[in-house]
Structures are given as structure tokens and as C-alpha cells.
């Protein structure tokens, strides 16, 4: 019996590993290349500076238009309604006079909103002069001014002494005026209110705070606090335009800092801000 022997199949060749090509490391830049890169960088800086200056000029033109063109019709509305109330009051019933009073109040409120909008736009264009600022002294003076504005209220101010920060004194005063004024306003329904300013340690950094035991707010809507013209309370309950905290945030941001808020309804609010040291 013949036995057939199968041919042996050749073993498959294993793929050979390819040698990795070494990327040559870049050598040191030549002096002429460094000069060229520096010149390109300076050109970009000049270009961006020119664009920023142009944007600022457009903003100034817008502010002028707001302050001039929009105020003119408001003055007419207020003037004519005032004339109607003075000259035609005898022929108007109580409902008619009430309507005219509402028109005047709305025009005055619109004028205030324009003022607040201009204030917000100017904050971003103010030149900053950084220095060591005694925030305690500023807070003390603001507290005294608030007490003088309404001596009948019982409000206790607790100001931590010798609290310093590096920043622009004028802008930081505006920020504290808005924060402390905000606490003063929202604590007005308390028979004996308490407002405090101080500094705490937060992860090794100075955390400045303004705290009150006033109306507080629901944390669900905390993201709206720093949005211009957003309000968590009714205008008749607490007057205002809703621009103050937006101004505060812009000032803190200009300093390279951060601001946050915490509140509990009917128990008070705390605003905390960090500034670079």
C-alpha cells in the first residue's frame, strides 16, 4: 500500500518590525530668527491694541447715544405729564391722575436704568491704579454714611479692623458701596439688623466677605444675581434696578478675582470675593 506524504507547508514569515525614525530635535534658534519672532509678536500686540482702542471708541459713542438720544424723549414724557398734572388736574378724575403718575414714575425709572447702564459700561474703561487698600476703613465710612441716610433704623455694623487688599481704591470702594448698600436695603425689614465685613481663610487664600441677616435669597436662582437688571425680589418690595451686583462682579473680575454668593430665604446672604495677592 502506497502512503502519500503531504508536502510540508512553509512557515509564514513574521512581519519585521520597522525601525522608528528619530525626529531630529530642533536646535537653538539663531539670533535673526529670534529678532523676527519678536518683531511678529510686537506687530500682533500693536494690532490687538488698535482693535481694543477702536472697540472702546465704539463703546464711548454708544454711551453718548444712550445718554443723549434716549434721554431726550424721556424728558419730553416727564415734562408733558407734569404739565398735564399741573394744568389739567381739576378736569381729571382720580383714575386719570393715577395714570399720569404711573407714566411719570416709569419715565423716571427708565432714566435711572440708563444711568445704571452707563455706570456699568464705564467700570470696564476706568484706568486701574493698584496699591495696598485698607478695606476696613472704606467699609467703616460706608457704614457711617448708611446710618446717616436713615437714623431711625437699628443696624449694627461689625467691621474687622485692618483688612488690606491690593487693588484700585476707587473701584474697590464702589464694590463695597454696592455690597454694603445691598445688605442695608435687604435687611430693612429686620427690627434689629446686623451687617458684617471681614476676611476668612479659604484654601490658603484671603476671602473677603459681606454678610447680613436680611431677606436672603433662594440658591436655585443664584446664577441670576450678577446678571444686569435681573432681580429676585419685586421692585415695590425692595427698590432698585438690579445693576449693583453686576458692577461688583465686573470690578472683581477686572482685578483678576472671583465673587460668589450664598443665601437662605429670610435668613440672610453672604457675598465672598477673592483678590490676587
In words, what does this structure look like?
The structure is a single chain. This protein has 277 residues and is of the alpha+beta class. The protein folds into two domains: 47-123; 131-274, Heat Shock Protein 90, CATH 3.30.565.10. The chain is 47% helix and 18% strand. The chain has six helices and seven strands, in the order H-H-H-E-H-E-E-H-E-E-H-E-E. It has helices at 31-69, 71-87, 94-123, 135-149, 169-186, 244-254; strands at 130-134, 154-159, 164-168, 192-202, 205-212, 258-264, 268-274. Strands 2-4-5-7-6 form a five-stranded mixed β-sheet. Helix 1 (31-69) runs antiparallel to helix 3 (94-123), helix 2 (71-87) runs antiparallel to helix 3 and helix 4 (135-149) packs across helix 5. The protein is flat, with a radius of gyration of 32 Å. The termini are far apart. The model is unreliable at 1-9 (pLDDT under 50).
Task: Outline the low-pLDDT stretches.
Answer: 1-9
What is the strand tally? 7
- Tell me what portion of residues adopts beta-strand conformation: 15-25%
From the alpha-carbon coordinates, what is the Rg to the nearest angstrom? 32 Å
Topology as a string of helices (H) and strands (E):
HHHEHEEHEEHEE
- Please identify, by name, the CATH architecture of the largest domain: 2-Layer Sandwich
- Principal-axis shape equals flat
Mean pLDDT: 82
- What is the number of helices? 6
**Could you name the CATH class of the largest domain?**
Alpha Beta
Q: What's the arrangement of strands in the largest beta sheet?
A: 2-4-5-7-6
Amino acid at each position: 500500500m502506497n502512503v502519500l506524504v503531504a508536502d510540508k507547508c512553509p512557515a509564514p514569515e513574521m512581519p519585521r518590525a520597522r525601525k522608528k525614525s528619530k525626529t531630529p530635535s530642533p536646535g537653538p534658534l539663531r539670533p535673526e530668527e529670534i529678532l523676527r519672532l519678536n518683531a511678529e509678536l510686537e506687530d500682533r500686540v500693536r494690532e490687538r491694541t488698535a482693535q481694543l482702542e477702536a472697540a472702546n471708541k465704539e463703546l464711548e459713542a454708544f454711551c453718548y447715544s444712550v445718554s443723549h438720544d434716549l434721554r431726550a424723549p424721556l424728558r419730553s414724557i416727564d415734562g408733558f405729564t407734569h404739565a398735564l398734572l399741573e394744568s389739567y388736574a381739576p378736569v381729571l378724575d382720580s383714575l386719570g391722575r393715577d395714570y399720569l403718575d404711573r407714566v411719570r414714575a416709569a419715565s423716571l425709572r427708565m432714566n435711572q436704568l440708563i444711568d445704571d447702564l452707563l455706570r456699568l459700561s464705564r467700570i470696564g474703561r476706568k484706568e486701574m491704579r493698584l496699591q495696598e487698600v485698607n478695606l476696613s476703613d472704606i467699609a467703616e465710612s460706608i457704614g457711617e454714611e448708611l446710618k446717616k441716610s436713615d437714623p431711625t433704623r437699628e443696624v449694627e455694623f461689625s467691621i474687622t479692623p485692618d483688612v488690606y487688599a491690593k487693588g484700585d481704591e476707587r473701584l474697590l470702594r464702589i464694590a463695597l458701596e454696592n455690597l454694603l448698600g445691598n445688605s442695608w436695603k435687604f435687611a430693612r425689614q429686620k427690627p434689629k439688623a446686623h451687617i458684617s465685613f471681614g476676611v476668612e481663610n479659604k484654601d490658603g487664600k484671603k476671602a473677603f466677605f459681606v454678610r447680613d441677616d436680611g431677606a436672603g435669597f433662594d440658591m436655585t436662582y443664584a446664577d441670576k444675581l450678577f446678571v444686569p437688571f435681573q432681580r429676585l425680589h419685586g421692585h415695590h418690595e425692595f427698590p432698585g434696578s438690579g445693576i449693583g451686583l453686576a458692577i461688583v462682579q465686573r470690578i472683581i473680575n477686572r482685578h483678576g478675582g472671583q465673587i460668589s454668593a450664598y443665601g437662605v430665604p429670610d435668613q440672610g446672604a453672604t457675598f465672598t470675593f477673592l483678590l490676587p495677592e
